[in-house]
Design goal:
By secondary structure, this protein is α/β, with parallel strands linked by helices. Helix content is 38%, strand content 17%. It is built from nine helices and nine strands.
Length: 301
């Protein structure tokens, strides 16, 4: 399970990024003066994995989305922080800029088609393009129901904030990702769908639909140098607590994992997203990565 959406808008001055073609963190550049036959000087330049890249992250106002936005910015990306709640987005943008990063905030309800179009257009207008799309937003308020009790309206709500929202952001971002020449789409699914967790019928159905969308897009967009992959995390977030506890606060669902703890959004989940966004994952597409402590070993295919 993961974090739901947050929100809003704040323009930040963007600074030119370093050469994006070099993905190594550190290079020692030795300048030689051949005519004099001597080493002229040593220059050390710090490189980051996402230098020169632009990214839009949905549901970035808190939890996993916030962690990804902050890490991408720290690794050199210009980041569009999107979510429904203006205060949350403003806080994340402020955190990024205080740390020396580049970010803008955009209020976006991913269930609203016009909001999605405006968010993509706003990011492209600010950054001049788009290289990375992270679909993290999801409304977790109606995730639970048995198959027998599940109503169509509840299911449709899960689909509108899940696979339909992903479809819309991907369609709006596609021409910009193609123009990038190294486009990345990272969609968030869930182990709940893989294992068919009892009591989570609408959530499981919506999340598996996201994985299906990702696999088809990976095949269709590979020729455009766009990779499409999924992350299926288990992490400690406010949204996780809200959907896995009863009225007394007692947990109603606890993962039985070999690594006996919940993941950290900052330390365990965001680095996986960074890998998929970077050149290190350029030969991977259509896959589901599972930073979940081993909860679904060898089953996320």
């Amino acid at each position: 399970m993961f974090d739901a959406a947050s929100t809003s808008s704040a323009a930040i001055t963007l600074h030119p990024a370093a050469n994006p073609s070099d993905d190594r963190r550190h290079r020692h550049i030795e300048c030689h003066n051949a005519a004099k036959g001597q080493n002229h000087r040593h220059v050390e330049r710090t490189m980051h994995r996402l230098d020169g890249k632009t990214a839009l992250i949905t549901g970035a106002g808190r939890g996993i989305g916030r962690a990804i936005a902050k890490l991408f910015a720290a690794e050199g990306a210009q980041v569009a922080v999107t979510s429904r709640t203006r205060a949350n987005v403003d806080n994340v943008v402020a955190e990024i800029t205080a740390a020396g990063g580049n970010a803008i905030g955009i209020t976006c309800d991913v269930a609203c088609e016009q909001d999605v179009r405006d968010a993509i257009a706003g990011a492209v207008a600010s950054f001049g393009g788009l290289d990375i799309l992270v679909n993290n937003a999801f409304d977790l308020s109606t995730t639970q129901s048995s198959v027998l009790d599940l109503g169509v309206d509840q299911l449709l709500h899960q689909f509108h904030t899940g696979p339909i929202a992903c479809l819309r952001t991907m369609q709006a971002a596609y021409p910009h990702l193609k123009h990038s020449g190294a486009g990345r789409v990272i969609n968030f699914a869930s182990s709940v769908g893989v294992i068919g967790a009892a009591g989570f019928a609408p959530y499981a159905m919506a999340k598996e639909a996201i994985r299906a969308l990702s696999r088809v897009a990976a095949r269709e967009w590979g020729a455009d140098a766009i990779t499409v992959n999924n992350i299926l995390p288990i992490a400690q977030t406010d949204a996780y607590d809200a959907t896995t506890a009863d009225e007394s606060g007692a947990a109603t669902w606890v993962p039985n994992s070999p690594i006996a703890r919940l993941g950290s959004p900052d330390l365990d989940i965001a680095p996986v997203a960074l890998f998929l966004a970077s050149a290190d994952a350029r030969f991977m597409t259509g896959y589901s990565l599972t930073p979940d402590g081993g909860f679904i070993i060898d089953t996320a295919r």
